[in-house]
Specification:
The chain is 36% helix and 23% strand. With 496 residues, it is of the alpha+beta class. The strands form seven sheets. It has a seven-stranded mixed β-sheet, with helices on both faces. Strand 17 and strand 18 form a beta hairpin. The longest helix has 26 residues.
Length: 496
């Protein structure tokens, strides 16, 4: 096959990107456009589907126009639970995309929880009743946008997560399909039986005609319409961003953990072929499905990681560039007992407090800008430690290393503090674009660039390894302070 290249479309929360990889995982080109978020009401977070699509198309077109050779395949990865409904004839969305961070359906989730539906939902989907997932977002669109429910029941509309919407657009409306990992985040897909669940569809009153076909992560998803990108390229790999990162990080054996620090933070532990429901308020999700065989993962979701740093930059103006946060953090010896709980859109795992608000605790006259910034960075380690404790309790595995990726791992302070608080090594890969590389690798297996995902995993290499340096007593003292801060927030009405 010579020296084939693979194109990954990475449509995230804050940007749309096209990344061209060599067979060895080397990044040959990146095209990127920032993607705005809209906040029409308190707790609401939206994006414009047209913006997503136009940006993806522009990034891909620019890359293809200047590439030395045509990529042999395309892989798609995406922000996951974000919900879009569009017209099957025109491709026009009926409403803005409701983003995974959106909390408008918290009351509906509370009602359903009080009615006793959460245990059944969790046993089928591995998910908890939270506004985070697609089902209640879809219900809101059906019930609040005039005429949409009637059009849906008439079979005129299609629903999908972002991967599904982009696939529809790339194929000129020829394909309405998603993959098992994205389907597993809707709260409508039974990950044990591996099909859309009729009882859940009835519970949420969602017409089955809205739903896409669910395929393996390695599949012939479709071919790009030449009228769209100017060339016909097979789309042959697809996975939600966190699952794609698990694959890109080579975490294919049970017990292996990857943690991605982007807008939010998401830690996944591979638990193998057997579905195990979490007993510690984590999620069980599809890790990947290949040749019809499902592999599961336990997931802990932190809603605000990089988002907290963005707020310090854009909301408070404490620095001009996110990279400056590292220097500020190390300019002081500690946070001076300042704790920052970044619950801007509620608290995720293992607390699941949708109404919680962000809080900075422990401020004194001695507190400085540097202490607040350091506390925000330290919070990422505390939140990760929360997740690891729950993961240990849920699984038979005791991880001794995390493979970390995402924008925040460029911050050496965060990586070292993570290792210190967790008490084991943090490995940062040579291929830092883990999610995009995972999607590209899936596509590469389908078209024969790689023999298997195992072949891809064998080539994984660490760029940097951070080892713990902090003594246990100091670690325990710092973590106890974090526990007090979270307790104050949640007991003080954070989940009312």
């Amino acid at each position: 096959m010579g020296n084939p290249t693979l194109l990954a479309i990475d449509q995230g929360t804050t940007s749309s990107r096209a990344i061209l990889f060599s067979q060895a995982g080397e990044v040959l080109d990146i095209q990127q456009k920032e993607l705005p978020l809209y906040y029409p009401q308190k707790g609401w977070v939206e994006q414009r589907p047209d913006d997503m699509w136009n940006d993806v198309r522009d990034c891909c077109t620019k890359m293809l126009n200047q590439a030395a050779q045509r990529p042999v395949a395309i892989g798609i990865t995406n922000q996951r639970e974000t919900t879009i409904v569009w017209d099957r004839k025109t491709g026009e969305s009926v409403y803005n995309a409701i983003v995974w961070q959106d909390r408008r359906t918290a009351e509906l989730c509370k009602v359903l929880k009080n009615q006793g539906h959460e245990p059944v939902i969790a046993s089928k989907t591995g998910l908890l009743l939270d506004p985070y997932f697609s089902a209640t977002k879809l219900v809101w669109i059906l019930d609040n946008v005039p005429g949409v429910r009637a059009r849906a029941e008439a079979g005129e509309l299609a629903f999908g997560t972002v991967d599904c919407y982009l696939l529809w657009k790339l194929t000129g409306g020829a394909v309405h399909a998603t993959d098992a990992t994205n389907a597993s985040r809707t709260m409508l897909y039974n990950i044990v039986e591996q099909q859309w669940d009729t009882a859940l569809l009835a519970l949420f009153n969602i017409p089955v005609s809205l739903l896409p076909e669910v395929k393996d992560n390695i599949s012939a998803f479709g071919i790009t319409d030449e009228r769209v990108l100017g060339v016909a390229i097979p789309i042959s790999g697809m996975a939600g961003d966190q699952q794609a990162a698990l694959i890109g990080q080579g975490c294919l054996k049970p017990g292996m953990v990857k943690s991605t620090y982007g807008t939010g933070c998401f830690a996944l532990m591979n638990i193998g072929a057997e579905f195990k429901q979490s007993k510690n308020r984590l999620l069980t999700t599809a890790a990947y499905r290949i040749d019809g065989k499902m592999t599961y993962a336990i997931e802990g979701s932190i809603f605000a990681a990089g988002a907290a740093i963005q707020w310090l930059r854009d909301g408070l103006g404490l620095f001009s560039h996110a990279s400056e946060s590292e220097a500020l953090a190390i300019s002081v010896k500690d946070s001076n007992e300042v704790y920052f709980v970044p619950a801007f859109t509620g608290l995720g795992a293992p607390y699941w407090c949708p109404h919680a608000k962000a809080m900075i605790m422990g401020l004194s006259r001695e507190s400085t800008q540097a202490h607040i910034v350091r506390a925000a960075l330290e919070a990422q380690a505390y939140q990760t430690l929360d997740l690891m404790g729950a993961m240990r309790a849920d699984s038979e595995h005791d991880p001794d290393v995390i493979r970390a990726d995402g924008g925040l791992v460029a911050n050496k302070f965060i990586c070292q503090f993570l290792a210190d608080m967790l008490g084991f090594s943090i490995e940062v890969p040579k291929v830092t674009e883990a999610a995009a590389w995972g999607a590209a690798a899936l596509a590469g297996v389908q078209v024969g660039v790689f023999s298997s995902v195992e072949e891809v995993a064998e080539s994984w290499r660490a760029e940097k390894i951070y080892k713990p340096k902090m003594d246990v007593s100091q670690r325990e003292k710092l973590y106890a302070g974090w526990g007090e801060a979270v307790a104050m927030l949640t007991k003080g009405g954070g989940d009312k």
